[in-house]
Amino acid sequence: MPIKRFKPTSPSRRYYETLVGDLTKGYKVERKLLDVQKSTGGRNHWGRITSRFRGGGHKQRYRVVDWKRNKVGVPAKVESVQYDPNRTARIALLHYADGDKTYILAPDGVKVGDQVLSSRNADIKPGNALPLRYIPAGTMIHAIEIKIGKGAQLVRSAGTAAQLMAKEGEYAHVRLPSSEVRLVHLSCRATVGQVSNLLHARVSLGKAGRTRWLGRRPHNRGVSMNPVDHPMGGGEGRTSGGRHPCSPWGQLAKGKKTRVNKRTNKFIVKARSAK
């Protein structure tokens, strides 16, 4: 999956890059697995901006991905590896032996024609889904459940992988990509391997317009605003802000701890911020 660079026929083309070779040629999107995807522009149901610098972008259709992998014991063949506009990873279209079709996150190394299985007796190879109880310690995994049967919630972005460190009682110690070590119940399901599209973070978009295609609007700094718009705004000429970096509402941006979910603190063995 190399990065393709283009001849500098224009200033923006000089730094324009794409990934080639990782998608199945001539694939067809499974229409029954498409859903409506509405663009919010960062607004809530009152029309107020709750997520800044979003809007525009290309129209998208949502691909319904099977996060639960609950077709236990039914083998499936990888029909194609496809692009998904809603996530950084690639998705794989599976054709099950009983005729069903679903999308899953495409693990790195899985090719068209490969067979995958969701079962406690499945082999430890990329694409197979098993409860953590039956996965050997040291295995690289992704698409991890937090609540039994709810579906994968952790480790789903391109190129990421967690490691099953150890098992103790009814819980497994899982080291996440952030280096946090977390307890996950052994009955929770996970998929073996690393998520596909490893070079996603290294691709240069090349021009501002390509960022707008993705629905990202320009992000302007607080020090460039007026005092009425931001606590760090104002001043004759350029200033460093005159106070600690913060959000427009005064929330400190550097160093202040923002985690408030005390209920799940007991599941964190080692925090990601620990030295």
Describe the structure.
By secondary structure, the chain is mainly beta. It folds into 2 domains: 22-201, OB fold (Dihydrolipoamide Acetyltransferase, E2P), CATH 2.40.50.140; 226-267, Irregular (Ribosomal protein L2, domain 3). 2% of the residues lie in helices and 24% in strands. The chain has 1 helix and 17 strands. It has one helix at residues 208-213; strands spanning 3-5, 17-19, 34-36, 61-63, 76-82, 91-96, 101-105, 115-116, 129-131, 140-142, 144-145, 152-154, 162-168, 171-175, 181-185, 189-192, 268-270. The chain has a 7-stranded antiparallel β-sheet, with no helix packed on it. A 4-stranded antiparallel β-sheet has the order 7-6-5-8, with no helix packed on it. Strands 1-2 form a two-stranded antiparallel ribbon. A hairpin with a 2-residue loop joins strand 13 (162-168) and strand 14 (171-175). It is globular. It starts with a strand and ends in a 5-residue tail after the last strand. The model has no long low-confidence stretch (mean pLDDT 94).
